[in-house]
Amino acid sequence: MSPSNNQDDNWLIRPSTIRLLWIVFVAVLAATVLADFFIEHKGKFGIDGTIGFYAWYGFLSCVVLVVGAKALGVLLKRKDTYYDD
């Protein structure tokens, strides 16, 4: 019997699995930020001692990188007919 090539057999692409993964990821992130309330913070620069600093700093850094990549893409974009010219 040959293996099936049907994409529905892969558990990672089922909508129920994707939803479950999102729920687990959000729960882990929420637990991490909640645990931050019970940890004593000794920041070196003042702002890094705030609650949830690494969570919002990482999120803002990601946003800056995405916006920067989009801006760079606009500057470096070429026409579709680049090789035809």
Properties at a glance:
85 residues; mainly alpha; 53% helix
Tally of extended strands? 0
Give the proportion of residues in helices: 40-55%
Tell me the overall shape.
Answer: flat
Order of helices and strands: HH
Number of domains: 1
Number of helical segments with 4 or more residues: 2
Q: Residue-averaged pLDDT, rounded?
A: 85
Q: Give unreliable regions as ranges.
A: none
Question: How big is the Rg?
Answer: 22 Å
- Biggest beta sheet attributes: none
Strand content: under 5%
SS-based structural class? mainly alpha
Note the topology.
Layout: H1 15-35, H2 53-76
Describe what you observe in this structure.
The protein is an all-alpha fold. The protein has one domain (7-84). The chain is 53% helix and 0% strand. The chain has two helices and no strands. The chain has helices at residues 15-35, 53-76. The chain is flat, with a radius of gyration of 22 Å. The termini are far apart. The mean pLDDT is 85.
Question: Gist?
Answer:
This protein is mostly helical.
